[in-house]
Amino acid sequence: MFAGGGCDRIAVSPEVLDGKGIPPLLLRTIDSRLAAVERKVAAGERLDFEDGLVLLQSPDLLRIGAMADEVRRRKNGDDAYFIVNTHLNYTNVCHLDCKLCAFGVKPDHPQAYTLSLEEIEAKLRAIAGKGFSELHIVGGVNASLPLSYYEDMMRLAKRILPGVHVQAFTAVEIDYMARISKSPVEKVLARLVEAGLDSILGGGAEIFDPQVRRIIAGHKTNAERWFAVHRIAHEMGIRTNASILYGHIEKPEHVVDHLLRLRDLQDETGGFSCFFPFAFHPANTALGREYKIQNTTTGYYDLKLLAVSRLLLDNFDHIRAFWMMIGLKMAQVALSFGVDDLDGTVMEEQIVHAAGAETAQMTPKEEFIRMILEAGRIPVQRDTLYNKLRIYG
User: Fold this and answer.
1) pLDDT for res 42
2) Scanning 67, 87, 172, 224, which has the fewest C-beta atoms within 10 Å of its C-beta?
3) pTM score, two decimals?
4) Residues 6+ positions from 182 with CB-CB distance below 8 Å
């Protein structure tokens, strides 16, 4: 298997994704099918699985981008969002052994750490009053931490950073909190919300296909359980996000299946705020070594993935380009490929950088404003739930 490879319905070589070496007959077939997808998008019709495959197989990135840009414009006009936020990675200790990850380590690893509540308090006090509207909290699955640790962390955040939205924990972390505390997910979420949790992260989704997921994520929370946690959260009125990890061993059918399963839950609950793709960084990962994945994703595939996400996820209001994964320049270009959100300023981030990302740790809001204005969009500083805090330009 390979990143963005072929599918069973039309035999396509990897070169198709780069627009090279496509047989003329196949090119005409793909082109006619892309034209049919264009007609459906223009008419506002919902795309199906086959349409998603056509989009991922087509080398015509600009046509796909134009479709996605039109859908973006219908949903959000020319508004382009960013948030002033910061991250807190409270532990890198994790017992999951996911091959995709370069962040998690075992407790006896020389670089293992778990922040004490006193250390967390010191970190929170250091960022108090600096204009952040969101605190993003995520870490490894550390089996030694009791549920009370997470509750106390929430209480500290709310006491030291009053008015700051706490968006914390993936469905994977919450699943393991429930297992360790031997409590139902509903009770765990209720306790976290009472302590100060405002919304839930979208990570841990990776790829939902069970065979691919088993290879890249081992015994991490499976897709069904991931969906169950988000469904319960939505039923409790807790907003969440959603994601995909791409650029490893997935094929187009896995990507389309992943997106449509998210769309189905959004049809059911309406509880997702946004969707964002994570580009896989192979450096320092077991998956990269085992499958000899030496390079990060291409800009071509990054833009196509974002555009196709905008086209298939018709019931998601926002598509976010995670600049820390693909770089600021590519994120800016993505504003013309269906993206309406450039994520946040961040300040300290360890998970992505552990996998070899060379992007900056922080981008000041002035840079977001400049990039958005240059792209012909309206810079909108938002909060976590996409309330508009300030409009620039």
Assistant:
1) 97
2) 224
3) 0.91
4) none
